[in-house]
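Need the bound structure for (2S)-2-hydroxybutanedioic acid, inputs here:
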Amino acid sequence: MRHFQPIARVPGDPILSLMDAYRADRNPAKLDLGVGVYKDAQGLTPIPRAVKLAEQRLLDSETSKSYIGGHGDALFGSLLSQLVLGADNPLLANRAAATQTPGGTGALRLAGEFIAQCLPGRSIWLSDPTWPIHESIFAAAGVRVGQYPYVGTDNRLNVEAMLAALSHVPQGDVVLLHACCHNPTGFDLSPRDWKRVLEVVKARELLPLIDFAYQGFGDGLAQDAFAVRLFAAELPEVLITSSCSKNFGLYRERTGALIVCAEQAEKLQDVRSQLAFIARNLWSTPPAHGAAVVATILADCNLRAAWSNELDSMRQRIAQLRTGLVSALQTHGLAERFAHLVVQRGMFSYTGLSALQVSRLRDEFSVYMVGSGRANMAGLDAERLDQLASAIARVCND
Ligand code: LMR
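Answer from helper R.:
Posting the output first, comments after.
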């Protein structure tokens, strides 16, 4: 008997497989706008200086590699919760706490398992479109997945359609919201829109699961937390998945957390006991290094200031690249068609390019982006915006 005989091959991950295809491309003029990693002017994904300094400190002072607990590093959890919810948030006294996870993806999977095991029968509602892995994570956890409209085929944010759909979601279901820098579209809700979403969430008694993977990449650390803090203040129960991959440049260190806000301190402990139990069955205890780096930075005012300044420059650079690309497209009469690039926030832009145009860009010009037309603006090279604009013009005008 050959046990593996019936096993079929599945297609590669739509985002990660682009990294392999890009690496294999021998064209020296290739451009990688696929996976969401920030690149600097040299085309490198830098390790922030504060991270390097914190790592040096840890290297010198670390005395043990013993396990950290099921909820992870307590200092990390506390400082990250302050960063997300605001240092003076009264919830932090005893009604909100973080469970450290392997990246934001781990936090999402933990949330999925928690919903499946502790809130059976609840569906989760995702924006259409959303990060493709959202759907597979919740499906893998056994949670039924539904969709609410977000950006239509006209590549515009449709808040009215979103609100109308959410107001028909079964009472008590879970709704996944992107706190900022919506992945894949880059279209974010305004504060006014968020207040309207909050009213629907209250009316339908939905449980919000807020995915917060890009804090600091939209408009600033505090500004990007607007929705998270609003929902945490106005609702009795909120789940937040936070990632340190992008804002601390810790991608491969897999550093994130699931933050739970509960109505009573006792109930928070009940929920946390379940999370520790679930996490034990998923990854036992989380990886320590990235969380120790984050805790070292956030606990030290000099490192923290250096990190936050570097994050500001990353955000400003992305904004300049967005404007620069639209100016380069102007030469080809395409500035108006791509004006949304400067309205969108964060790393990603739903360009509005079709799947066919995306594959032509790849095959003819070695420009790599996700088939949905999502481009990682943080992967652009300021010196090659004209090259990219000409390639886009070719596939749009042919
Ligand atoms: C992305 O969407 O490109 C990033 O969040 C990286 C990933 O894990 O997919």
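Comments: The CA atoms of residues 55 and 61 lie 10 Å apart. The mean pLDDT is 97.
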